Amino acid sequence: MIKSKLTALCTCLLLGSHYTRAQGIYLGFESGVSMNRMQTNASGRFFTNYQGLPGIAVAAAVSWEVNKWLALQTAPTFVQKNYKLYRTGYFDGVFREFHNDYWQLPVMAQFSFGTSVIQGFLNLGAYSAYWSSAATKGRQPVMWNQGDRDPASSNKIFSRNGGQTYNEKYEFDNRKDNRREHGWLAGAGIRWMPGPLSRIYLECRYYDSQSDQQKNYMLNRVGRYNQTICISLGYQYRLAKLNRLF
Which whole-number Å values give the CA distances from 142 to 91, 136, 146, in the listed order? Predict the structure, then answer.
């Protein structure tokens, strides 16, 4: 469904360029920080919470200006979508962090407004991503290490069992891990054009995954969906006018 709508969006914008005055093609880069949130239902897991973690986002940004207010943009991106699971109450101190690396391809329609020097813009579109690698670290109790502690005086799991930490590469399981992700995106930003050929911009972009991070491998499975915010600073340079290319 998302792939077909994405194709339709690209087709409409490209066809529209034949009926408007072409402005130019821009190439550049952008980098910044990401903050990911794992959207899931943890109500059935007592004393369990999820927390977002920061990461990095780096992209090559390409824009095709259709006219002064509309452009088609893509930005092949490396982005980290990290999050943390932690326990409370009796299990306080137990946690597990997930550090996930994705290669992502968004396609956006960009709507601009403002002057020839300062402009604001809005981005709407869709994206596809691939979960390339991951690592996990955390702390867990040593269940077999009961020691001589008095259970009546132990109100935390680590005071009874002790704990151990770990930091290791995550090994994907093809039976349950869904490494392909698709979803929608929206963004807003501001850009400054110091000259006729270059522009510098700051953008906040939100990615909402419509793909479960897990395959349908078990009954009563609880879905998990990435929700990611990226704040990036970027630079673009105009390579050529489109009417010279077509």
Answer: 12, 18, 8
pLDDT tens column, 111-124: 999 999 999 999 99
Strands (E), the chain: 24-40, 48-65, 70-74, 77-80, 82-87, 95-114, 118-141, 163-169, 180-192, 198-209, 224-240
Q: Which two tokens stand for residue 3?
A: 């792939």
d(CA 164, CA 149): 18
Q: In sequence order, which residues have a C-beta less than 8 Å from that of residue 22 and are 6 or more positions away?
A: 65, 66, 67, 241, 242, 243, 246
8 A C-beta contact, residue 40 and residue 225: yes
pLDDT tens figures, 32-73: 999 999 998 876 677 888 999 999 999 999 999 999 899 999
- 67 HSE (CA, 13 A, CB side): 9
Element (H, E) at 14: helix 2-16
Global pTM reads 0.82
2-245 adopts what CATH topology?
Porin (2.40.160)
d(CA 193, CA 102): 31
